[in-house]
Amino acid sequence: MNTPAPRNLVPGDMPTGLDDIVLPFAAGRLQTRGRIVRLGETVDKILRGHAYPDPVSRLLGEAIALGILLGTSLKLEGRFILQTKTDGPVPTIVVDFETPDRVRAWAQFDEKVLAQFSTDGASDSARLLGNGHLALTIDHSNHQNRYQGVVPLEDANLSEAADLYFSQSEQIPTLVRLAVAEEFNGSARQWRAGGILVQHLPEAGIAVAHRDLPPGDLPDGVPPLPDFEEDDQWVETRALAATIEDYELVDPGLAPEQLLYRLFHENDVRVFEKTPLTARCRCSEESVAAMLKKFSPEERADMVVDGEIYVDCQFCSSRYVFSSDEII
Questions:
Q1: How high is the pLDDT of residue 16?
Q2: Where are the domains of the chain?
Q3: pLDDT, tens digit, 9 for 90 and up, residues 9-47
Q4: What average pLDDT does the chain have?
Q5: CA atoms of 63 and 51, how far apart (whole Å)
Q6: Which CATH number fits domain 18-279: 3.40.50.720, 3.40.50.12160, 3.40.50.300, 3.55.30.10?
Q7: Among 111, 151, 103, which Cα is nearest to 131's?
Q8: What is the bridge-based pairing of β-strands 102-108 and 278-279?
Q9: Does domain 285-327 have CATH number 3.10.20.740?
């Protein structure tokens, strides 16, 4: 099947109200590439299914948007798993993205600590996470070795942690913005999420020229080495991306193409084929039964309650019930 060619953005020729997609783009003059994600029903289904407190839903919504932005970069079939382990009110988050379009997610939180947590806006996600680490795992379906990158979470939100990961591990200048909001339509409420990832990928060279470290203390009278200078194209890209408002990432009346045109219309911006997204769990009665049979007979016997074994899926909250005769 032929891949549709990238297309230039033209005012008046852009869709509106399109949710649950990821849209790759490139701004040629700035040698910048990236992806923008817009989530409606997909993120709402996950968050409503767990009935989390609002602060937890907002944080998990950010994590889902980030997991999709990173997971859709995979070129081969497989899974991308984003996981946090921290000491904050929300110590664990897991986002499991299966190429090309399926996502599921869950969060663990401390009800007592969360009850004392007061929200104050943009800093909430860093405070909810606390200190720990963010692990990013690529698991290819062809049984290749897993790849995992780990970045510390120290008073940082998920966007900042992702920026740090690309800076340290990939050495690619990267900026990530994430947003989550609730849409109110009469008595109906729906969670929405969005995000954008932009990276500077020049055809030649590295976008940031790192300065050399001095070989010890500098002699008296010798000026210190100047700070490194960022590539002008990346400086301009960051300045443009910094103008994005949170509402622009989640507004159902503002198509991703329109937002990209606002940002990069002077810089040869083009978009590529969209990928539709859906919230769908990987669990099934067969897979759960197969998992239980990996335990020893003694371990399975310890799981029996009133003649049955109960297994709840953390991702979708589905409950599977097996009689002891079926499993043991």
A1: 59
A2: 18-279, 285-327
A3: 767 666 655 899 999 999 999 999 999 999 999 999 999
A4: 85
A5: 16
A6: 3.55.30.10
A7: 151
A8: parallel
A9: no
200 forms beta bridges with 32
pTM comes to 0.85
pLDDT tens figures, 264-307: 999 999 999 999 999 999 889 888 888 888 888 888 888 888 88
3-state secondary structure the chain: CCCCCCEECCCCCCCCCCCCEEEEEEEHHHCEEEEEEEECHHHHHHHHHHCCCHHHHHHHHHHHHHHHHHHCCCCCCEEEEEEEEECCCCCEEEEEEECCCEEEEEEECCHHHHHCCCCCCCCHHHHHHCEEEEEEEEEECCCCCCEEEEEEEECCCHHHHHHHHHHHHHCCCEEEEEEEEEEEECCEEEEEEEEEEEEECCCCCCCECCCCCCCCCCCCCCCCCCCCCECHHHHHHHHHHCCCCHHHHHCCCCCHHHHHHHHHCCCCEEECCCEECEECCCCCHHHHHHHHCCCCHHHHHHHCECCEEEEECCCCCCEEEEEHHHHC
Residues of the chain with pLDDT under 50: 1, 121-123, 205-218, 225-228
Predicted pLDDT at 228: 45
